[in-house]
Amino acid sequence: MRQRTITAFFFALVMLGGIYGGPHTLFVLFGLITAIGAWELGSLAYKHEEQYLSLRRLIMAVLTAGLYTWVGGDLMHYWHMNPFLATALVPVMFGLLATVELYLNGKTPFPNIGMYFLAGFYLAIPFILLLIIANGESYYPNRVLGLLLLVWTNDTGAYLFGRKFGKTKLFERISPNKTWEGTLGGAFFALLVSWGLSHVIYDFTLLQWLTLSIVAAVGSNIGDLIESMLKRSVGVKDSGTIMPGHGGVLDRFDAFVFCLPFYWLVLELLH
User: Fold this and answer.
1) What CA–CA distance (Å, rounded) separates 120 from 62?
2) Which of 4, 46, 183, 195 is a plausible cystine mate for 245, CB 3.0–4.6 Å?
3) Same domain, 70 and 159
4) pTM of the entire structure?
5) Distances (CA, A) of 110 to 32, 45, 113, 115, 242
6) Assigned domain for 16 exists
7) How far is 234 from 39, CA to CA, in rounded Å?
8) Per the domain annotation, does 222 fall within a domain?
């Protein structure tokens, strides 16, 4: 418990520093999260391979962080991304990855090549959408904190309600500890917090905050279940060990990553 508390304290400091340090620190923070998360995802995706596991993880981390940096850097006006070049690079990248797989002599080349692209959709694109949400006419750090709070509050509420009242299993095959009672309790907490956020963070309307809380309540559970499914498929408990007592980066951001595209969609539709 002491180790978990210490880790959580420093995690909170890093997150707050990255968010409120400005748009550039936010860009770097989530670039690091993208790279570490991709490394961990590679350890799950290629666990069945007996050779070159570290090399595969490194390729996945570099490609995923590279996609985030290239597109995100364009959004941050660090450089200009050529749309035609970006489109042309997709088949080029496939050719290069297929060639790499040819020499690595993997057991399952089709899935192995696909996993590199999966990492981009799973991690890089959601965090690119976060940059879009956070940066508009100005930089809006409170938006980022608010969106994170909705997910974390939902998770905390679900845990507390689940321990106290949980009886009906939500998805026992994947996560035996999740219950419908905990899920509803988490949703209630998220709705309550969204109402409070609408009175202190005026970037979004009350309707937007309430809708975002629904996304957090539903998406957090699905995102967590999906990562649990992936980990169970390869027989591991945590995605990594970088956060003692809490597991890996994917374990901490699985829900948030899943919610981000839906956050962005809600804000576009309710603009």
Assistant:
1) 11
2) 4
3) no
4) 0.94
5) 28, 12, 6, 9, 30
6) no
7) 16
8) yes
